[in-house]
């Protein structure tokens, strides 16, 4: 009966562990000490479940009361109870499990992570020390294939966990020579993660030229990465005589080349450049050649820019003339209304007709658009930058187009007001109007498409 399972494949011991009933757990194990209690459908064994939930007392009960047969200790994704205890950050639980089964330090989960990898990732220095005391040497060099072949030291460096990294390097100095799949050593990874590694360089095995100037697969040294990532500059590191300031990456660029050609992302660029110069770092041959070519191109660009601005100003003068004509015509038409005025009160005679009202509205729109275009030209004339001059000219162009269209509509409305019976002359004017309107619309659509 004790071994019976429910639909989730949980035994009574699984349930007792899940709800943290120490007396029930002890009683069940004492009644059937030879049963290993395997995993449920989720992959969890009672021992793993207890460790995962941080139930240190239950872990101790299960370990101490199953003396004949070792209890199952696995969990989901092939993790062990030791993985779970490390993640829970419980040094006492880790100590109990290591005392019971120290070989669990060699076990890796479905992603290739050992308990030491987990502790290095989380930065649990005390647990790292416990694991190192009970681990074989090769555990420190185990690589995570699904994570760029990183070792525990690489993972600590990636996370910026300097205490963990110091423990690993101090215990196994040659582990700092390992590189990941991208050719990065621990110093590369600390640099990329904005990690503070000044204290690491105090360790003799880390402060060697072979590591400090080692290139990854892209040819980047830690100094290149400092310049590329624009970290908080470290004068002590930059001034270190072992750091080669003139070493080239795969693009034939020095660290000075990278920082000089980059934008100031975090406000550290000036400081990095200043300290690189103090350390006698210089630009490489490729940047010097690019600088010479750029100076030549800039001189040519200035000449072309002058020609472009001259062309835009000539175009602006032509557009200004058109806008002025539209404004003049629209202004004059506002005081010479079709049909004339009443002699008695001076009001327009045809003011109640729809066509007359349309004439007044579109005449006002033509005047407003043309005056706006003229003001845009004036504003553009005050700017000497090509981009601002082009923007002003573009705005004036569209308002001039709008003014011309509104003026044509006002003219046709006025003709219709004076000749509501559509004589032959009026009909001809309508045809011309529609042709001109279609031409204007066609021109506007083509400009938008461009």
TrEMBL record:
GO terms for cellular component: plasma membrane. The chain crosses the membrane at residues 320-342, 354-375, 395-415, 427-445. Pfam families: Ank_2, PGG. Gene3D superfamilies: Ankyrin repeat-containing domain. InterPro entries: Ankyrin_rpt (IPR002110), Ankyrin_rpt-contain_sf (IPR036770), PGG_dom (IPR026961). It is a multi-pass membrane protein. Signal peptide: none annotated. Residues 312-417 form the PGG domain. It is found in: Membrane. ANK repeats lie at residues 8-40, 42-74, 111-135. Keywords: ANK repeat, Membrane, Repeat, Transmembrane, Transmembrane helix. This is PGG domain-containing protein. It comes from Vitis rotundifolia.
């Amino acid at each position: 009966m004790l071994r019976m399972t429910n639909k989730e494949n949980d035994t009574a011991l699984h349930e007792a562990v899940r709800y943290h009933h120490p007396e029930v757990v002890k009683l069940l194990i004492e009644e059937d000490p030879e049963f290993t209690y395997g995993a449920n459908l989720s992959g969890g064994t009672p021992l793993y479940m207890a460790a995962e939930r941080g139930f240190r007392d239950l872990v101790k009960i299960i370990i101490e009361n199953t003396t004949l047969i070792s209890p199952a200790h696995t969990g989901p994704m092939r993790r062990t109870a030791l993985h779970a205890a490390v993640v829970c950050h419980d040094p006492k639980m880790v100590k109990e499990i290591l005392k019971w089964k120290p070989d669990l330090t060699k076990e890796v989960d479905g992603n290739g992570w050992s308990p030491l990898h987990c502790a290095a990732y989380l930065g649990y220095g005390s647990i790292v020390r416990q694991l190192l005391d009970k681990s074989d040497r090769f555990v420190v060099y185990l690589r995570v294939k699904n994570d760029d072949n990183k070792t525990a030291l690489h993972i600590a460096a990636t996370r910026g966990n300097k205490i963990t990294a110091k423990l690993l390097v101090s215990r196994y100095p040659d582990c700092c020579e390992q590189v990941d799949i991208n050719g990065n050593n621990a110093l590369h990874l600390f640099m990329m993660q904005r990690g503070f590694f000044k204290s690491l360089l105090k360790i003799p095995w880390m402060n060697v030229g072979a590591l400090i100037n080692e290139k990854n697969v892209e040819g980047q040294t830690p100094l290149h990465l400092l310049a590329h990532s624009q970290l908080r500059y470290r004068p002590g590191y930059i001034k270190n005589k072992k750091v080669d300031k003139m070493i080239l990456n795969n693009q034939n660029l020095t660290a000075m080349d990278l920082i000089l050609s980059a934008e100031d992302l975090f406000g550290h660029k000036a400081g990095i450049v200043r300290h690189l110069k103090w350390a006698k770092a210089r630009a490489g041959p490729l940047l010097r050649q690019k600088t010479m070519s750029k100076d030549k191109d800039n001189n040519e660009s200035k000449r072309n820019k002058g020609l472009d601005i001259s062309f835009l100003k000539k175009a602006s003068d032509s557009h200004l003339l058109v806008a002025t004509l539209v404004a003049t015509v629209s202004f004059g038409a506002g005081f010479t209304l079709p049909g004339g005025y009443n002699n008695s009160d001076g009001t327009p005679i045809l003011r109640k007709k729809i066509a007359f009202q349309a004439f007044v509205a579109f005449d006002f729109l033509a005047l407003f658009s043309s005056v706006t275009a003229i003001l845009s030209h004036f504003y553009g004339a005050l700017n000497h930058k090509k981009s601002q001059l082009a923007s002003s000219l573009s705005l004036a162009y569209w308002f001039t187009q709008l003014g011309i269209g509104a003026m044509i509509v006002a003219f046709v409305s006025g003709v219709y007001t004076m000749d509501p019976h559509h004589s032959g002359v009026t009909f001809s004017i309508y045809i011309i109007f529609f042709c001109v309107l279609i031409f204007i619309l066609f021109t506007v659509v083509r400009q938008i498409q461009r």
